[in-house]
């Protein structure tokens, strides 16, 4: 066994460069599912790929290497300059636009707010919003029990924005009221879409941010003949203005309530109160708080929306799983329904909801198989050695147990590769099999709130051997059941428990009232409508031609009111 020794990545094996400008990135980021799996099969947990203008990068899914990158040596492997600066430019100085000490300060304020105790308090805020969503969808379903095709993703998107708005920020964005428009909500929806139109400008952002004052940046945007740049500036202004108005309003509310005990059910108030009473050196400025609001509104949007759509799609594809899950939810709700209360309208308490075994298995398995974000970047800030769990072959055929990573190397963390690694998840890693998370009695296999959080703290003491994603003493350093979907270490997703809660609440509410199946529409030539999930940077459901353009995000499912025969 050897360690790659030279100060370049020449020794590391990987595919040929495929384009002088984009290297292999266009293959990885545009519907790259098959391409990526071919690379993992051929090269293993570390693959050299080519980035912009032929720069050599590493795509990593090896568990020990990821442990080093995210948990052991995060001071070496930073978020990329491009990511941090672009976030700062558009969203302001929220947690994802910060590094090192400033990042620690942000997390110190965010971590307690997103605690389990606060999730328990927030569920009752989310429940009525989900009920309204279910009523709105039910209202468009035929009362005779026949099916109606519905683009489920647009409904899910309405919901996810409102859950975060009300539960995290204590405001409404009116997204469930189809008669109202809301400029703030429109701006949030437009950010990613508009930024994508000018993604090619992102490499220049750090230079511009460091060398141009705000005045000259504005002049640049005025002069350049690129309209989406101006659109993004307008969006960014509107987000900033709205966030500052939320802060002002909340401060007034807090000032007016001396007896206020933090029971108010939104996290931003909890955070603001903590911020107001902390020491000067730890206190976040209003600029940072405004950035935080924008980050929280954006962070859980598309990710949670596509995760919800993916779960409903899987249940539509697997009717037995759908029936079994619906029955589990009915049994749980019936236990809590009083005399005469229709069980469908019962809201389960937090601990009952998150512990439902089959619901949990479905959610975890879908997160594992189909992570909403499948690639994340880090940059190596100084020469380093990356040890590997599973040796890889060098470009000249030798086995390597570690890799020298030169300073400046970009690292692509492959969430997809990690979540499908057979040596950790088993030979059936690429099968959607929710039962892997359950024991033979149908109970959850040890994963729970404790273990998930223990992973965050990298508690090696936790006995997790034999659980899914833990094999022969090897596991991934993820915060959520060993998978890398929400990442791990000090920059792991702050909102994973919130996302889990909202997803479980939505699925458990919708399934009681409706049944989902794949679209049945056929065109004049008898061709059936088919949904296809593109794996770009984010997972994107589209419709194949001739029914769709293979580009626009949509997830049309046949939906009808539930019948007795839909339970097991
Ligand atoms: C299915 C839903 C979600 C997925 C798959 C997801 C995934 C992730 C991932 C992979 C990261 C790490 C990004 C990086 O380091 O480059 C992250 C960070 C983050 N997420 Fe989530 N997320 C989800 C939902 C949410 C929700 C609901 C919120 C808030 C309400 C949220 C807030 C954040 C924040 C603030 C960060 C930045 C943390 C930091 O830099 O310290 N996420 N998320």
TrEMBL record:
Coiled coil ranges: none
InterPro entries: Cyt_P450, Cyt_P450_E_grp-I, Cyt_P450_sf, Cytochrome_P450_monoxygenase
Cofactor: heme
Residues that coordinate or bind heme: 493
Pathway annotation from the record: Secondary metabolite biosynthesis
Key word Iron present: yes
SUPFAM superfamilies found in the cross-reference section: Cytochrome P450 (SSF48264)
Molecular-function GO term, any one: monooxygenase activity
Keyword field: Heme, Iron, Metal-binding, Monooxygenase, Oxidoreductase, Signal
Family statement drawn from the similarity comment of this UniProt entry: Belongs to the cytochrome P450 family.
Cited PANTHER family: CYTOCHROME P450, CYTOCHROME P450 12A4, MITOCHONDRIAL-RELATED
Protein name listed in UniProt: Cytochrome P450
Organism: Lentinus tigrinus ALCF2SS1-6
Origin organism lineage: Eukaryota, Fungi, Dikarya, Basidiomycota, Agaricomycotina
């Amino acid at each position: 066994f050897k360690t790659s020794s030279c100060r370049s990545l020449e020794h590391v094996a990987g595919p040929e460069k495929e384009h002088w400008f984009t290297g292999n990135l266009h293959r990885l980021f545009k519907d790259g599912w098959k391409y990526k799996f071919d690379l993992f099969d051929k090269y293993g947990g570390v693959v050299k790929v080519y980035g912009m203008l032929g720069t050599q990068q590493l795509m990593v899914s090896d568990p020990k290497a990821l442990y080093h990158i995210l948990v052991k040596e995060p001071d070496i492997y930073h978020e990329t300059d491009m990511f941090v600066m672009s976030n700062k430019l558009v969203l302001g100085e929220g947690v994802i636009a910060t590094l090192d000490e400033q990042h620690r300060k942000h997390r110190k304020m965010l971590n307690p707010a997103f605690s389990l105790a606060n999730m328990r308090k927030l569920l009752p805020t989310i429940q009525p919003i989900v009920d309204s969503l279910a009523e709105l969808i039910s209202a468009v379903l035929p009362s005779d029990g026949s099916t109606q095709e519905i683009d489920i993703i647009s409904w899910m998107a309405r919901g996810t924005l409102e859950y975060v708005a009300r539960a995290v920020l204590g405001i409404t964005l009116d997204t469930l009221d189809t008669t109202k428009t809301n400029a703030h909500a429109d701006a949030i929806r437009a950010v990613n879409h508009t930024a994508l139109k000018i993604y090619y400008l992102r490499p220049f952002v750090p230079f511009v941010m460091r060398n141009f004052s705000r005045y000259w940046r504005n002049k640049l945007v005025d002069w350049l003949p690129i309209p989406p740049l101006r659109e993004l500036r307008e969006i960014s202004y509107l987000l900033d203005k709205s966030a500052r108005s939320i802060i002002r309003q909340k401060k007034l509310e807090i000032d007016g309530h001396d007896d206020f005990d933090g029971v108010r059910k939104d996290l931003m108030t909890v955070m603001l109160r903590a911020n107001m009473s902390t020491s000067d050196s730890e206190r976040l400025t209003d600029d940072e708080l405004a950035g935080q609001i924008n980050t929280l509104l954006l962070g859980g949007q598309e990710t949670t929306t596509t995760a919800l759509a993916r779960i409903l799609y899987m249940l539509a594809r697997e009717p037995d799983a759908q029936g079994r899950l619906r029955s589990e939810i009915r049994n749980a709700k019936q236990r809590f329904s009083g005399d005469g209360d229709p069980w469908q309208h019962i809201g389960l308490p937090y601990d009952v909801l998150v512990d439902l075994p089959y619901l949990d298995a479905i959610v975890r398995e879908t997160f594992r198989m189909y992570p909403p974000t499948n690639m994340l970047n880090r940059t190596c800030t100084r020469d380093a050695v990356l040890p590997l769990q599973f040796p890889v072959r060098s470009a000249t055929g030798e086995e390597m147990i570690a890799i020298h990573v030169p300073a400046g190397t970009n690292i692509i963390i492959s969430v997809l590769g990690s979540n499908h690694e057979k040596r950790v998840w088993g030979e059936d890693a690429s099968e959607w099999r929710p039962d892997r998370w359950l024991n033979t009695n149908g109970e959850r296999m040890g994963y729970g709130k404790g273990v998930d959080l223990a992973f965050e703290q990298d508690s090696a003491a936790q006995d997790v051997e034999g659980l899914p994603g833990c094999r022969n003493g090897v596991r991934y350093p993820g915060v959520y059941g060993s998978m890398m979907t929400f990442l791990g270490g000090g920059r792991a997703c702050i909102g994973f428990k919130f996302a889990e809660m909202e997803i479980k609440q939505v699925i458990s509410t919708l399934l009681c009232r409706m049944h989902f199946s794949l679209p049945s529409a056929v065109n004049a030539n008898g061709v059936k409508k088919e949904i296809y999930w593109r794996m770009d940077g984010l997972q994107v459901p589209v419709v194949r031609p001739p029914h769709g353009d293979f580009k626009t995000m949509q997830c049309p499912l046949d939906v009808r009111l539930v019948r007795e025969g839909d339970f097991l």
